[in-house]
Amino acid sequence: MFVREAEFKDYSKIAQLHTKNWQQAYQGILDNQYLEERLSVDHQAVWQTRLTQPSLNQGVLLLEEGDNLCGFVCLYGNHSFEHGTMIDNLHIADGYRGQGLGKKLMFEAAKWARKHFDDVGMYLEVLTKNEPAKAFYDSIDGIDAGEVIWKAPCGSQVPCHTMTWSSPSMLLEKTT
Prior knowledge:
Layout: E1 2-5, H1 11-25, H2 32-37, H3 39-52, E2 58-65, E3 68-80, E4 84-92, H4 101-117, E5 122-127, H5 131-139, E6 143-151, E7 157-165, H6 168-175
Parallel strand pairs: 4-5
Antiparallel strand pairs: 1-2, 2-3, 3-4, 5-7, 6-7
Helix pairs in contact: 1-3, 4-6
């Protein structure tokens, strides 16, 4: 397996993995009609845009085995004055879960953040009802900075928790 930065040609497979994971993890949390009928189109558009017109502070890292996308992480450096670099997406493909790949991608995310935005913390938002993801972030010592409400693309307002790490180096230490 190897990690590399995403390129435009990757947008479709990223969008497919992103969509499939949301459809699995967010059933009963987000509007089911949205998940089944509109999500795929929305994610295709999001990833086309992100990879053709990336923000200067954006990083998208892929974990691949041959031609298979095993997972990806998307970050926005120094996104929040309070919390620092945002981990916007972390997704592992079905057949690759439980093999430590989430931890590997968090390690790579922390390396990216340390290289580009070393002087700020790192954070992400995880849906309150996404228990497996919350347990994973707890296992790598994410600090729960409190609940926020996410205005989901389907119109739902969904409770989330902000998980933080004081620095990229701290996250590196917890993922080695």
